[in-house]
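Reading is simple: each integer encodes one residue's backbone shape. An example follows:

___
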Amino acid sequence: MRESTSTVVVERVADPGPDTCAEWDRLVARTPGTDVTQLSVWARVRAGQRFVPLHLLARRDGVLVGGALVLVRRVRGFGSLGYVPYGPVAGFADGRAEVVAALADALSSLRLRMLFVQPPEGAEDVSGALVDRGFRPSAAEIAPTGSMRIDLGPDEAALRAALSRRLRYWTGRWADRGVTVRRGDERDVPLLVELMGTAAAARGYPRPPRLDYVTTLYAELARTGNVALFVGEVHGVPVSADLVTVCGDTVRGKLCGFDRDGDGRRLSVPAAARWEIIRWARRSGHRFIDFGGLSEATLCGATAGVRDDESWPSADRAKMAFGGTAFRYPAPVELIRPVPLRWAYDAAGRSAAGRALVARARIVLRSSAPTRPAAEAGP
């Protein structure tokens, strides 16, 4: 099926084939603000969780100029749910408005009971176009509302100077205290999941993803060069692990775990791992690093210019200690049809059973997003 707006034609494709996937991946990688969750490899990552991919491919005169990877899954009690994580993708060159309009038309015409869209950074026009076509702002909290970014353009000395006073002190002490950070591989994935479980239990977070899912995630992204794993150790004993993803010029925190007992917390080992990730990302030629989502309270303060606040969650303070710049993502939107289902969905939030059902759907979809359980590194 094809839909068109002006000279832009949008095609729905279930299996684009290797050549089209390669073309799509090149577009995603060179478009600012996008994420691995729009790369074709992500469809393989999510296949084990019963997600079926649907590609919307926008072309102008045969040239691919935009699109979206829509992840579709049937959830009991809701029907078929769709999620577009950090998409749709559209270049910022001349003619963008036409591409955004065509993709908004295509998304609004999908036959799904629920469709959630989190536009990528800088794509406020996408949210507006979708609202014009019947979507509404979403409070489903499937993706973080904002995050923080470090510009890796300055030299290492300048990056170190931007750290908090405590972290500047530790960058010269970790080696003497037996703290080391090494690159991990597939053999360290069980360790990552174990440390994620330890951190979740200590902080009361939801259970981490299953080992088989994280194993698939690492294997698929390692095959395409879109992932790296770092393990922090004290005298050779692993106490922290960070999995980051790579898309275009940006490195993003995806999953992390930390054992708070023993010397790991006292020596700020998670911060040592993040500092090594910064240094590695810069040496590797990447331009930005994003350590993951921020809470709304931290985001409001940080975007207003506050560097640190004791009232912020400790995990947020640990991220902001690296001197990054906070930013807010465009508003997420949702389309729920038919109207009786939307009423039922809204009513569900007013009962315990309904909230549990909505929370289940949120967890199913949220694991598609680049969020990560936070290990405390200390400010």
Summary: The longest strand covers residues 63-75.
